[in-house]
C-alpha cells in the first residue's frame, strides 16, 4: 500500500514535469441544487476532453443525474432545469464511473474548480468511486492571479466565465447549459495556457502553479 | 449521453451551407468535429496534422497565404477554408498566419464527404465556391418551387400562355381573303407567312382600317402591299415581361412569337397580357396611355411607387423591375409628347426622343433620375427650334411631376445642350472621344447607353451607327479603361470590405457606384469596342458571347455579379423606402453570412474585370 502510493507519487511527478501540451485535460461543468457539497446535490454534469490545442467534440458528455424528487431549490432559476428534465435520468454511478475513467491521469479544468471538485468527491464517495485526476486547474484563479500580478483592481464580476473569456477575445456564448459552459471553460483554458506557456517549454506543473494564490 | 450542442448548432445555422442540413445531419457533424485554439504557437502544425479537412472560423483573424507569399484572403468568423484540397484531392500548399488568436472548428474529411452525400445543397455550395461561382443561381428543387409559387406571372415564358392556334395567310393572298379569314377566326391580327415557315409580316384590324378602307384600296390587292413587313417579334422562351416591354417600346398591340428556329408559332396580344391574372403592370401602362390631360397623367403616376413596391416584393427576377420602370417612363414620355402635340401641333420636323442612362439600359430604379435628350433634324429654323424647346420643357417637367426626379447634371431635353441635330450630337461625341477631360470622360459614358423612346427610326438608327463608330476609337477606349480600372472596389487588403462613404455613413458600401455602375462601365467598354448598339448591360453581355476579348467565363461572372448586386440593391431599396437612409449604400454587417460572402465574391469579380479591361484597352492611347 505504502509502496504503491510512493510509485504513484513518482509517476505523478513525472507526469507533471511533461510539457503541458502533452497531457489530457477534462473541462467540466456541474449543475447543482446549491453551493454546499455536503447538503446540496449534483443535478447534471457535462465534460469535454482536451488534447491541446484540440477540444474533441467526440468526447462530449452530458448527464442528468437527479431523481424525480430531487430538490431543485434555486436551480430552475440558475440553469433552467425543471422536474421534467429528470424524466430520463442516468444512474449517477454509471456516469461517475465513466468520469473516473476519463479523468484518470488527466487534469480537471473548471471555472472555480474547488467547488466542482468538492461536489464530485462527495458524489463519488457515495458510490465508492475514486476520482484520480493528475491535477486540478482553475481558470478563475488563473485570471485572478494574472490580474493581481498586473496590479489590476479586480472589479466585481470581472472573474465570471464570460468576463474571463472576453479578455481573450473568445466568442460570446448565449447559452448557459452545463455543456456550453464546459466548452467555454475548455476554450478559456487553452487561451490561458497558450498565453502563458505557448512559446517556451512549460511543464504541466508550472501551468498548474499559476492557479494558486500568489 | 450527448449534449444538445445548442451553441454550436446556433452558430452553424448562420454559417452556410450548414444551414442547408437538417438538424439531425448537423448534429451528426458536430458530434465528430474538433475545435482548435489557433494561435501563433500551433498554426504551423494545423495543416500538417489535420488535413484534408474543412475548417470553420469561429473567432480570431487569420490570413491565408499562397506559396508566393501573397495573401489570398483574410479569414474571420463564419469563413470556411480547406475545401479546395478536399474537393481536388491535392495537398494543401497555402499556409496560415495568425492576426488574432481564435477558435477554428475542424470537420474531418470523412464527415465532410458524408455531408456531401447526405445533402445536395451542401455539396453544390462547395462545388460552386470551389469554382468561385458563389453567385450562380442555385437551381435546387426548393428554389425552383419557391420562385414558381411566389413569382409574378410576367416571369412566365410566352410559350406558356400561347393558346390559340396560329392564324396565317401567305403574302400573295388577297386583302379580302385575309379579312375573311380574320373574321372567321375572330382575331384582330393575322400572320403573313411564306413557305417554308418564314414570317413575312403582320396584318391587323388597324391596318385594314387605316391602310385599306380609309385609303380606298382595292380588296383584291395582295396583302403584302398593306401588311407591316418584318415586324418586331419575340421568342416563345422569352418572358411576358419581354413581350410587354417590346409592346410599350414600339407602341404596338400584337407580337408574332417565334420558336428558336425562327419559325412563327403564334401571336401574343396586349389583351392576352391583360387577361393574365393580376396584370397590374399592363393596367397601369394602359391607364397612363389613356390619361386625357397632364393632371390625369400625374394622378395615375402617383400610384407608381406603391405599386412598384408590392410588385418588386413579388418578383423573383430583379431585372423585371428595372424594365417595368423603364416601360412606365417610356409610356409617360410618349403620352406627354402626345399631349404637347395636341396643344402645339405635330412636330415640325423629324426627331427622336432619346433615353440615356438607366432608362436607356432599362435598369431604372425608383430613385433613378431623368436622363434624356432630343435628336433633331438638321437645319431647323428658329420657330421649329422653339417647338422642340417647348417639348423638352413640357416633357421633362411632366416627368418630374409624375415622380421621375430631375437630373442634377442637367442631362435633359429641356437643356439646350441636350437638343442637337445629328451633326451636333456627333460633334459632341467626337469631342469626348478625341480630347476628353477626366470629368467629361466620366460623365459622357451614359450617353453611350441610348434608346429611342419615340420618333423617327431612320434618324435614330443613323445616329446610333455613327455614335457606335466614334465609340470604337482606341484612344477613347483606352481612356475609359484606365478610368474604370482606377475606381476603388470596396475590398481592402485581404479581401475585407472597405467602406466607400464618409461621415455618418462610414460603415456603408455604395453598391451602385462601386458595383453595378462599374460593371455597366466595363461592359460598355467591351461593347463599344465590338461596335454594338445595344444599351442594356445583360443584353450587351449576351451579344458579347463569343467575343475574343471577353471570355465566356468572365462574361458569365460579370452577368452574375450584376444580377446579384441589382437584386441586393432592389431588396435594400424596398427596405429603406420612405426613410432618409441611403438608397444605394448598405452596411455589410447587416447582411446574412451568405449574402456577405456573395457580395465579396461579386466585388472580387469586378476587381478582376477591372484588371482585365485595364490590360486589354488601358495600354493603348
From TrEMBL, chain A:
Keywords: Exonuclease, Hydrolase, Nuclease. Gene3D superfamilies: Ribonuclease H-like superfamily/Ribonuclease H (3.30.420.10). It comes from the Bacteria. GO terms for molecular function: 3'-5' exonuclease activity; nucleic acid binding. GO terms for biological process: DNA metabolic process. InterPro entries: Ribonucl_H, RNaseH-like_sf, RNaseH_sf. GO terms for cellular component: cytosol. Residues 24-198 form the Exonuclease domain. SUPFAM superfamilies: Ribonuclease H-like. It holds the Pfam family RNase_T. This is Exonuclease domain-containing protein.
TrEMBL record, chain B:
Pfam families: CBS, DUF294, DUF294_C. SUPFAM superfamilies: cAMP-binding domain-like, CBS-domain pair. It comes from the Bacteria. Residues 162-219, 227-284 form the CBS domain. Keywords: CBS domain, Repeat. Residues 17-115 form the Cyclic nucleotide-binding domain. GO terms for molecular function: [protein-PII] uridylyltransferase activity. PROSITE patterns: CBS, CNMP_BINDING_3. InterPro entries: CBS_dom, CBS_dom_sf, CBS_domain-containing, cNMP-bd_dom, cNMP-bd_dom_sf, DUF294_put_nucleoTrafse_sb-bd, GlnD_Uridyltrans_N, RmlC-like_jellyroll. This is Signal peptide protein. It comes from Pseudidiomarina salinarum.
Amino acid at each position: 500500500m505504502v509502496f504503491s502510493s510512493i510509485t504513484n507519487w513518482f509517476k505523478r511527478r513525472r507526469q507533471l514535469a511533461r510539457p503541458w501540451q502533452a497531457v489530457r485535460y477534462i473541462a467540466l461543468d456541474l449543475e447543482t441544487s446549491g453551493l454546499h457539497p455536503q447538503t446540496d446535490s449534483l443535478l447534471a454534469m457535462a465534460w469535454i476532453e482536451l488534447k491541446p490545442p484540440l477540444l474533441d467534440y467526440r468526447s462530449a458528455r452530458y448527464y442528468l443525474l437527479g431523481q424525480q424528487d430531487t430538490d431543485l431549490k434555486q436551480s430552475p432559476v440558475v440553469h433552467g432545469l425543471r422536474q421534467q428534465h429528470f424524466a430520463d435520468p442516468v444512474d449517477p454511478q454509471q456516469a461517475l464511473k465513466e468520469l473516473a475513467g476519463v479523468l484518470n491521469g488527466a487534469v480537471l479544468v473548471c471555472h472555480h474548480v474547488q467547488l466542482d471538485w468538492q461536489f464530485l468527491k462527495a458524489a463519488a464517495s457515495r458510490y465508492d468511486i475514486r476520482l484520480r485526476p493528475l491535477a486540478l486547474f482553475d481558470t478563475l484563479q488563473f485570471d485572478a492571479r494574472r490580474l493581481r500580478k498586473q496590479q489590476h483592481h479586480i472589479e466585481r464580476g470581472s472573474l465570471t466565465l464570460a468576463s474571463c473569456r472576453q479578455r481573450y477575445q473568445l466568442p460570446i456564448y448565449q447559452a448557459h447549459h452545463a455543456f456550453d459552459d464546459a466548452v467555454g471553460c475548455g476554450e478559456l483554458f487553452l487561451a490561458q495556457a497558450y498565453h502563458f506557456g505557448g512559446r517556451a517549454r512549460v511543464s504541466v506543473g508550472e501551468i498548474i502553479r499559476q492557479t494558486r494564490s500568489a | 449521453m450527448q449534449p444538445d450542442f445548442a451553441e454550436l448548432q446556433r452558430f452553424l445555422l448562420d454559417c452556410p451551407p450548414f444551414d442547408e442540413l437538417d438538424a439531425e445531419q448537423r448534429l451528426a457533424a458536430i458530434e465528430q468535429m474538433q475545435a482548435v485554439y489557433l494561435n501563433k504557437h500551433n498554426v504551423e502544425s494545423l495543416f500538417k496534422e489535420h488535413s484534408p479537412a474543412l475548417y470553420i472560423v469561429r473567432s480570431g483573424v487569420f490570413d491565408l497565404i499562397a506559396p508566393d507569399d501573397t495573401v489570398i484572403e483574410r479569414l474571420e468568423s463564419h469563413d470556411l477554408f480547406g475545401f479546395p484540397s478536399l474537393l481536388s484531392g491535392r495537398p494543401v500548399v497555402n499556409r496560415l498566419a495568425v492576426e488574432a488568436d481564435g477558435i477554428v472548428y475542424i470537420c474531418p474529411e470523412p464527415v465532410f464527404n458524408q455531408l456531401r452525400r447526405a445533402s445536395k445543397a451542401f455539396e453544390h455550395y462547395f462545388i460552386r465556391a470551389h469554382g468561385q461561382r458563389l453567385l450562380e443561381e442555385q437551381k435546387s428543387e426548393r428554389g425552383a418551387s419557391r420562385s414558381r409559387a411566389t413569382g409574378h406571372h410576367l416571369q412566365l415564358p410566352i410559350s406558356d400562355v400561347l393558346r390559340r392556334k396560329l392564324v396565317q395567310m401567305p403574302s400573295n393572298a388577297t386583302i379580302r381573303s385575309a379579312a375573311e379569314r380574320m373574321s372567321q377566326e375572330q382575331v384582330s391580327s393575322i400572320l403573313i407567312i411564306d413557305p417554308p415557315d418564314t414570317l413575312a409580316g403582320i396584318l391587323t384590324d388597324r391596318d385594314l382600317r387605316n391602310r385599306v378602307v380609309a385609303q380606298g384600296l382595292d380588296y383584291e390587292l395582295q396583302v403584302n402591299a398593306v401588311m407591316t413587313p418584318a415586324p418586331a417579334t419575340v421568342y416563345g422562351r422569352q418572358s411576358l415581361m419581354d413581350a410587354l416591354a417590346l409592346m410599350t417600346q414600339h407602341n404596338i398591340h400584337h407580337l408574332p412569337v417565334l420558336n428558336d428556329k425562327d419559325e412563327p408559332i403564334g401571336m401574343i396580344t396586349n389583351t392576352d397580357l391583360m387577361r393574365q391574372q393580376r396584370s397590374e403592370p399592363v393596367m397601369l401602362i394602359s391607364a397612363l396611355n389613356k390619361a386625357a390631360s397632364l393632371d390625369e397623367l400625374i394622378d395615375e403616376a402617383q400610384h407608381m411607387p406603391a405599386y412598384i413596391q408590392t410588385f418588386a416584393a413579388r418578383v423573383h427576377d430583379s431585372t423585371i423591375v428595372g424594365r417595368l420602370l423603364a416601360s412606365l417612363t417610356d409610356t409617360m414620355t410618349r403620352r406627354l409628347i402626345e399631349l404637347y402635340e395636341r396643344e402645339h401641333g405635330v412636330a415640325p420636323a423629324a426627331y427622336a426622343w432619346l433615353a440615356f442612362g438607366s432608362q436607356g439600359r432599362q435598369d431604372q430604379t425608383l430613385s433613378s433620375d431623368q436622363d434624356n435628350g432630343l435628336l433633331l433634324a438638321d437645319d431647323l429654323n428658329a420657330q421649329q427650334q422653339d417647338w422642340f424647346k417647348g417639348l423638352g420643357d413640357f416633357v421633362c417637367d411632366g416627368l418630374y411631376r409624375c415622380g421621375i426626379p430631375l437630373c442634377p447634371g442637367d442631362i435633359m431635353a429641356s437643356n439646350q445642350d441636350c437638343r442637337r441635330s445629328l451633326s451636333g450630337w456627333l460633334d459632341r461625341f467626337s469631342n469626348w472621344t478625341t480630347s476628353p477631360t477626366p470629368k467629361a470622360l466620366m460623365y459622357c459614358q451614359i450617353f453611350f447607353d441610348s434608346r429611342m423612346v419615340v420618333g423617327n427610326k431612320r434618324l435614330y438608327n443613323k445616329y446610333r451607327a455613327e455614335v457606335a463608330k466614334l465609340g470604337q476609337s482606341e484612344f477613347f477606349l483606352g481612356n475609359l479603361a484606365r478610368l474604370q480600372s482606377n475606381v476603388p472596389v470596396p475590398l481592402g487588403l485581404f479581401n475585407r470590405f472597405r467602406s466607400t462613404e464618409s461621415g455618418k455613413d462610414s460603415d456603408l458600401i455604395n453598391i451602385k457606384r462601386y458595383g453595378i455602375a462599374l460593371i455597366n462601365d466595363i461592359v460598355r467598354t467591351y461593347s463599344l469596342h465590338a461596335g454594338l448598339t445595344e444599351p442594356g448591360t445583360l443584353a450587351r453581355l449576351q451579344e458579347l458571347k463569343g467575343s475574343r476579348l471577353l471570355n465566356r467565363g468572365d462574361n458569365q461572372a460579370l452577368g452574375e455579379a450584376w444580377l446579384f448586386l441589382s437584386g441586393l440593391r432592389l431588396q435594400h431599396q424596398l427596405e429603406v423606402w420612405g426613410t432618409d437612409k441611403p438608397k444605394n449604400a448598405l452596411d455589410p454587417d447587416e447582411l446574412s453570412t451568405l449574402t456577405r460572402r456573395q457580395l465579396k465574391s461579386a466585388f472580387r469579380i469586378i476587381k478582376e474585370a477591372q484588371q482585365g479591361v485595364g490590360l486589354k484597352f488601358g495600354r493603348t492611347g
